[in-house]
Amino acid sequence: MTATPTRRNFLKAAAGGLIATSTVPTAGLASAPRFDVVIRGGTIVDGTGSRGVRKDLGIRGDRVVAIADLAGADAKRSINATGRIVCPGFIDMHSHSDSSLLEDGLAQSAVRQGATTHVIGNCGSSPAPVGSPVQLSGHTLSTYGDYLKALQKSGTSINVCGLVGHNSVRRAVMGTQNRQPTPVELRQMQDLVDEAMRSGAVGLSTGLVSPPGIYSKTPEIVALARVAARHGGQYSSHIRGEASTLVEAVSEAIQVGREAGLPVQISHHKAAGRENWGTTRKTLPMIEAANRGGHRVRVDVYPYHAGSAGMAQLVPPWAHEGGSGALLGRLKDPVQRRRIARDMVRGTDNWPNFFKIEWDDIQIAAVGNRANRKWIGKRVADVARARKCDGVQACIDLLIEGNGRVRMINFIIDEREMQRVLQHPLSMIGSDGRAVSADTARGMPHPRYYGCFPRVLGRYCRQLKLFPLETAIHKMTAMPAKQLALADRGTLKIGQAADVVVFNFQTIIDKATFQAPHQYPEGIEAVLVNGLPVVLDGTHTETHPGRILRPQRS
């Protein structure tokens, strides 16, 4: 039998902010502990993969301080979670919210689906560093530190982990030139990565299918990744091809991690294009083997059979050299246009991400001009039929008319293969979307902006039973926290940060679709970030408790 703690010992523990589950007296005490928030009656799934337990959760300040029967405890705010799941806030391992969080820090589409932390700066692209100062949402940016300070000043409803993008670093030093850096230029790039890591970045990202990252070679990436490694960072990569060169691209990512000595995260892992479906049966064992060899390699995945990107990504790499202005000039030149169109259909020897395009599989998500808004939500093949031309010509025309600012949703993923990656024990969840508001968002973006995490829980966990609830939550919480070296996030334990989600497992589901994406999910009832409620009863409280999170790697 456990002895009842004395009042003196209890108050000593309370003063230290670490009230252990076994030492919280809730009856017979004249002055019961006062909490800022108590979440009562829920089933706590703590993020570790362990089975849920029926307990109350006590929060003081920004910390979890009690997990016990708190029926007699006094609290400033009480949240009824009877019949609900209480778990750590979800960590979106792959987002592109860099600019949208500066524009609107409420992060509506993120936090309403339970995401309390976004990892930004993915695919080699971050708002800084830049070659010369730029204005972004009223802030002057030059270094990566400038960007993080601006984000902190403007305030966010969610936490942020920032990656510094290799494309941005390379562009700041070399522009979009298709050549290798000189030793001086490489040192300049290393200095920019060092500044970003010292300012609070969690790692380096690459986007090796888009310029100028596509022009780099592996030794350059290793040299920059070593700088991130010195600061305890990780390497996140949109690898050098997700189509016919997928196996070689995964091998390169593993090599970078091994030679630079840092954890690796392979972004939105998939096999793109019907002719490449099934290739993850080769890459997943490669990743398993790397982990057995002592190299930490993980993947992130989104629960959809379509991706999304700029439509210019369908244009061969050589046509991008010199930047967007040079690309548009080539598209408009009759001779260059014919070569571009041919390469888009046939591919080139040095185009690692080429896949055979089915124009009925390419949906238009956003256009850069008013006249073409009628095509949003339609397929490129629809434009081709209406204009009586083939798909590649319709695509080129849309890019010219939209000044290159055309986005697409590409249905190039096998649903069964996506499920295989989703189910794999080394995969985490990343939306590959951005935090936006349904009230102000434009175009017809990918539904993952709004529904990624509820879709995992509702469709793939509850309905299709791909994995137990505890496993699904682990993939979204403790597993990404460990990958990022966020020592006080990802689990609900005494002393951990109070990032918390309360949801109804029986009803949680995504509502956003490819034709009607601007819809928040169902089933998320409360979300707390650093102990403060950001969503209550499905309504945003318009608070900004988010923080910039840094790695705490030993």
Describe the structure.
There is one protein chain. The chain has about 550 residues and is an alpha/beta fold. The chain folds into 2 domains: about 290 residues, Alpha-Beta Barrel (TIM Barrel), CATH 3.20.20.140; about 100 residues, no CATH class. Helices cover about 30% and strands about 20% of the residues. The protein is built from 17 helices and 24 strands. Strands 8-9-12-13-14-15-16-20 form an 8-stranded parallel β-sheet, with helices on both faces. Strands 3-2-7-21-22-23-24 form a 7-stranded mixed β-sheet, with no helix packed on it. A hairpin with an 8-residue loop joins strand 2 and strand 3. Helix 5 packs across helix 6, helix 7 crosses helix 8 and helix 12 packs across helix 13. The radius of gyration is 24 Å and the shape is globular. About 55% of the residues are buried. The N terminus is likely disordered.
Bulk shape = globular
Which runs of at least 5 residues are low in confidence (pLDDT < 50)? 1-30
Calculate the mean pLDDT score and round it.
92
Fraction of helical residues? 25-40%
CATH fold assignment of the largest domain? TIM Barrel
Terminal residue distance: 39 Å
Second CATH tier, the architecture of the largest domain:
Alpha-Beta Barrel
Features:
554 residues, alpha/beta, TIM Barrel, 2 domains, 8-stranded parallel beta sheet, 32% helix, globular, disordered N terminus
What does this entry show, briefly?
The protein is of the alpha/beta class and 554 residues long.
